[in-house]
């Protein structure tokens, strides 16, 4: 069975084609500037050189067609025709409270996904556009929605509720949802395997650290808390997002700086985080380089980030009554030895000991804690696409 995994943004589309017989990657690629001048597809068949195709794409349907053409091309394709694609798995950011697992898409499901767009206006609409584009070109191919929020639907009510008037939850669905669920689910399963334990007997803290970042408490295989909330703005300091702040800052800026709600929202989402603190970049690599050269604001930005992650680890260890393993994943978590070391420094009281030599690694599954560390620390590369493909295959077979 071959599964096409699709992740649509407003003007971009990432894809992977995976052979589920052995979970091998056949091809992957990225479409950029959809609906914009200079549309381009970068297609990479496994074991071959990448192919760059510049071609006008007025919408996502054009983009999907170009992807299918690339996958079936005589020279750089990896399948003979579209019929070899058994199903399509779509990343959908928000499933609201309705979905705690992935689901086969039909007309009724599409209506619910449209309703969820009010909770994720920047993410769900492009996801839906991608689904509709695939349905138009592949009408007889099963489509599955895999939600970023689904894994966190196991949070207890006392963890997901805000202390606002209850009717705001009932009327508008204002509560904590959490995101990056597919990644947290994947790496927590791998961590349990590394521990040699059944995940139902594990207490695992997963740290998805990238430009967007979140921490999750995974107790006995289920998410019981996570740092992102109603939106992906809550929680950790991120590339351009501020994370946790006093909510009164919003009204203060509206009154004192004469900013509109949209302007404040833009500041918090796009001008804050390590970019706002450092004044250097939203890319952690640039900020680390600047800090190493003596830039005090860059060092401050990193210190704030490490401190926030450390606080969440401590909080989630308390929430679960202990921790067996801490996992670092995503761009920064996988590729920054400094981020892992600085985050874990000071957690010795929990039984965390980092092996500095073993920690000098990037992008490779590794235990980076010492042999006598009571809490194991792992670098585990995430693979959300494979998780989406697995869910898609399971649902289609059922």
From TrEMBL:
PROSITE patterns, per the entry: ACETATE_KINASE_1, ACETATE_KINASE_2
Reactions catalysed, as given in the entry: acetate + ATP = acetyl phosphate + ADP
Top-rank EC class of the record's enzyme: transferase
Main location, first listed in the record: cytoplasm
Biological processes, Gene Ontology terms: acetate metabolic process; acetyl-CoA biosynthetic process
UniProt: ATP binding residues: 14, 208-212, 283-285, 331-335
EC number(s) recorded for this UniProt protein: 2.7.2.1
Location in or out of the cell: Cytoplasm
GO CC aspect terms: cytoplasm
GO molecular function terms noted in the UniProt entry: acetate kinase activity; ATP binding; magnesium ion binding
Cofactor note: Mg(2+). Can also accept Mn(2+).
UniProt superkingdom: Bacteria
Complex and partners: Homodimer.
Family the entry assigns: Belongs to the acetokinase family.
Name of the protein: Acetate kinase
Lineage: Bacteria, Bacillati, Bacillota, Clostridia, Eubacteriales
Gene: ackA
